[in-house]
Specification:
Elements lengths: L4 E3 L9 H11 L3 E5 L16 H14 L2 E10 L9 H10 L3 E6 L4 H17 L3 E5 L9 H11 L4 E6 H6 L4 H5 L6 E6 L10 H10 L11 H5 L7 E4 L4 H7 L1 H16 L3
């Protein structure tokens, strides 16, 4: 079985959804990710959630190219989250054929966040979607061990850990923790490189993660050790937002170089 590669939403570096599908097709990506809900208050999105014309254009582009939708971004679980409020988002991404939903936890109350995540798994399961929980050092789920505990506690087929090489490098987790994570608890992994050393402040971690990741092999993360532990048939999302590089060479070329470097890292033709 050939590994599938997905063009991460952030790797499009600001390109609109239809253009992004074209970029994915041009460079050999199998799948694509779209963000329909904001990652933060300053996030400015294309109106794919509300604009039916844009929806139909994206659907047509995917039909024409054969690119399918991997994951949708993103659900953030806060202290006041109402799970039912995500229904319009889920209805929309179901129309696009999404398979997974990226989930982040902002709530620092462990019991409430667990209850909300478990309930979310139930809701997503009814859509045949998965709830892929991403650990990030500045959030309520800061590391791989915490994400695994929540996924195992949810005890639901939709529950999964989302492994991101940048966050893994920054969160203090060990390679043994990744080695011991059962493949059945993951649906896909996100791969990129990043600067080493780095400023560990939340502000700088967020800036790098959203705007200045690096093409694999061009930063200082020990990606070879990580790559050796990625299951052979696991889908890989190539996530390389780099606004400065995109301004220099274009979003399409960033996506091309990032895919080529990721395939080389993982030993895929």
């Amino acid at each position: 079985m050939t590994r599938a590669y997905s063009l991460g939403y952030l790797t499009c570096n600001g390109a609109d959804p239809v253009t992004s599908v074209g970029i994915a097709a041009d460079h050999g990506y199998d799948m694509i990710s779209f963000r329909l809900l904001p990652a933060g208050p300053a996030d400015r999105l294309f109106p794919l959630l509300e604009d039916d014309t844009m929806l139909h254009e994206v659907q047509a582009a995917m039909r024409d190219t054969g690119v399918t939708m991997a994951d949708a971004e993103m659900i953030r679980l806060a202290s006041d989250t109402r799970i039912e409020s995500f229904t319009p988002f889920l209805d929309r991404i179901a129309e696009l054929g999404a398979k997974h939903v990226l989930v982040a936890v902002d709530d620092t109350d462990p019991d409430r966040s667990q209850d909300n995540y478990t309930a979310l798994c139930g809701l997503l399961g009814s859509y045949n979607l998965t709830a892929d929980l991403e650990f990030m050092p500045w959030t309520g789920v800061k590391n791989l061990a915490h994400a695994r505990r929540m996924v195992e506690s949810a005890d639901h087929p939709a529950a999964a850990v989302l492994f991101d090489s940048l966050h893994f490098d920054r969160c203090g987790a060990s390679l043994d923790e990744f080695r011991d994570l059962p493949a059945r608890l993951m649906n896909y992994v996100q791969i990129c490189d990043g600067p080493v050393p780095y400023d560990p402040s939340d502000e700088e971690l967020i800036r790098i993660a959203r705007t200045a990741r690096m093409i694999p092999g061009e930063g200082g993360i020990d990606l070879a050790a990580i790559a050796a532990l990625v299951p052979k048939e696991m889908t890989v999302s190539v996530e390389v937002p780099n606004h400065a590089l995109a301004a220099e060479i274009g979003a399409s070329e960033v996506a091309r170089r990032a895919l080529a470097a990721t395939k080389k890292l993982l030993g895929d033709p």
